[in-house]
Amino acid sequence: MENNHILEMRGVTKHFPGVLALDAVDFKVQPGTVHALMGENGAGKSTLMKCLFGIYKMDQGTIILKDRECHFNSAADALTAGVSMIHQELSNVPERSVAQNIWLGREPLNSIRLINHKKMITDTRTLLQNLNFNFDPAARIASLSISQQQGCEIAKAVSYNSSIVVMDEPTSSLTENEVAHLFDIIRDLRSKGMAIIYISHKMEEIFQIADDVTIMRDGRVIGTYPINELNGDKLISLMVGRSITDRFPPVESTVGEICLEVKNLTAANPRSFKNISFALHKGEILGIGGLVGAQRTELVEAIFGIRKTVSGEILVNGKALDKVRPQDAIKSGIGLVTEDRRSSGIFPLLNVTVNTTIASLGNYKKKIGLLDHKKLVSMAVKQNKQLKTKTPSMNTLVQNLSGGNQQKVILSRWLMTLPDILIMDEPTRGIDVGAKYEIYTIMAELAKQGKAIIMVSSEMPELIGMSHRVLVLCTGQLTGTLEKEELTQEAIMRHATQFS
Ligand SMILES: Nc1ncnc2c1ncn2[C@@H]1O[C@H](COP(=O)(O)OP(=O)(O)OP(=O)(O)O)[C@@H](O)[C@H]1O
Ligand SMILES: [Mg+2]
Q1: Going by CA atoms, what residue is nearest to atom 3 of ligand 1?
Q2: 403 touches ligand 1 (CB under 6 Å)
Q3: Is the C-alpha dihedral spanning 442, 430, 347, 332 positive or negative?
Q4: Checking DSSP bridges between strand 195-199 and strand 34-39, what pairing results, if any?
Q5: Is 407 in the pocket of ligand 1 (CB under 6 A)?
Q6: What is the pLDDT of residue 343?
Q7: 26, 11 Cβ separation under 8 angstroms
């Protein structure tokens, strides 16, 4: 067995200013396997893979690929040596075509050394067909769905004849069918001898697809286990270093009077939601369930004034909002924690303090209109401490935080606005099990204080574990409202698939 590894990383150490991100990490992968890499937010998973891929320079350590020691100085080096990575942040060039992205820097040339576009397109078409993707090789990346963009990256990996493909949280924006397709592709690549390193916080996926699991904690490897030696509880306790008995804290709030009413709300986009009515009460956690494409995000964005509606009403504390723009929504006490932190939430080049405080600056004005900086910063520190955001300092650029910690900064931002109504769209996506519990605890606490929460979620256990009631949407229509005692996965699924 010893020499059977396709990849061996030995003693990999990596410092960032103020953090030891990797501490003498040993990591081995066998060919023809799916090797899951798991651990809490900030454990060092992405950093380890970026060292492998030549994006980060390791301080110490060696990388052995098929018995040969390698040093990659760039992603291009890694690709040429047969290592591909599909990033947590997709990295295609949006304004170029699929074919241009795949063959970037190694375009086929014709006899007079110009790019042979025709060959590039036909080669791409064959590549896509072999992977069962049916999008156009000439399509601009920006016009593709997330899953198609990811497909493009997978096609690129295959085109380089890679022997190792790293996938960093690949399913976070995929529908169930897309996940199934991705898993088919992964199984097919595995059967051809490729090694897939798979990073995910979704436990069910790991048990479906992984052969081996390596668990990291605080920059160290805790251990590598074959999947059949693990179960959910054991995996969690290895990740967080303690066993977690309850996944959800008790929700002990009193549900009071109505604070938000939505009446017959219909989106301007005819393919979006129609005729939605519901009421939200003080102290209530109202879940919104449904499959991807159910228009849940569109609905909450309309309530927050980001999406246009053609008819219907929104009332806050009995008063109809005549105009709904985000600034009006914020003024009437509504906060929205967005689903996609990369495109609509995070300011990557600004630091943690600014990202935390940017929506609540108005609360920190001194008499003559200046900001009370000291108070602002101390509140930002307090809020991030409460969520256990892991950051070297408050001045660290948010783009340097791990994915899950970026999500915590956004949540802190909206908690700082002290909203009466907090809308959370997939609040725990990309968040590890320990941190999820912290977020649930905060939700329960807010409800106890009489705040109202709307939680859009695709995770059924979370909908069932935290909500007083769940609305289910299917292709833009409200297909069911389930009370606490009616909440089961089957009941949610039944309503979520009503029209499909
Ligand atoms: N470019 C960077 N500059 C400074 N610090 C960084 C940088 N990249 C990562 N870090 C730090 O290194 C540590 C490990 O981060 P990493 O992104 O590898 O975590 P992760 O295990 O992928 O977490 P997640 O599950 O949240 O994605 C964190 O403390 C993070 O803040
Ligand atoms: Mg990561």
Answers
A1: 400
A2: yes
A3: negative
A4: parallel
A5: no
A6: 56
A7: yes
CA separation for the pair 446, 423 (Å, rounded): 12
Pocket test for ligand 1, best of 169, 200, 216, 401 (most atoms within 8 A of CB): 401
Residue of 16, 53, 349 best suited for mutating to test ligand 1, as the one with most atoms within 8 Å of CB: 16
Ligand 1 centroid–CA 309 distance in Å is 40
Tens digit of each residue's pLDDT (9 = 90 or more) over 283-338: 999 999 998 778 999 999 999 999 999 999 999 999 998 777 888 888 889 999 88
Q: Is the CB of 413 under 6 A from ligand 1?
A: no
Atom of ligand 1 at shortest range from CA of 45: 21
Q: Which atom of ligand 1 is nearest to the CA of 43?
A: 21
- Tell me the chain's radius of gyration from C-alpha atoms: 24
Please state whether 215 falls in left (phi above 0), alpha (psi between -120 and 50) or beta: beta
User: Is the CB of 401 within 6 Å of ligand 1?
Assistant: yes
Looking at residue 165, the DSSP 8-state letter turns out to be E
Q: Looking up tokens 């929460």, which residue turns up?
A: 453
- Enumerate the H helices of 32-116 as residue ranges: 45-52, 75-80, 98-102
The alpha-helical segments, DSSP class H, found in 210-295 are: 232-240
* The CATH number of domain 258-496 is 3.40.50.300: yes
At 1, the pLDDT band (50, 70, 90 cuts) reads very low
Task: Provide CATH code, domain 2-240.
Answer: 3.40.50.300
> 274 alpha carbon to ligand 2 midpoint, in Å?
37
The ranges of the chain annotated as CATH 3.40.50.300 are 2-240, 258-496
DSSP letter, residue 254: P
* Amino acid in the structure at residue 391: T
Does residue 92 surpass a pLDDT of 80? Answer: no
Cα–Cα distance measured from residue 230 to residue 409, given in angstroms and rounded to the nearest whole number = 32
140-152 pLDDT per residue, tens: 988 888 778 888 8
Residue 358, Cα to own-chain centre: how many angstroms? Answer: 22
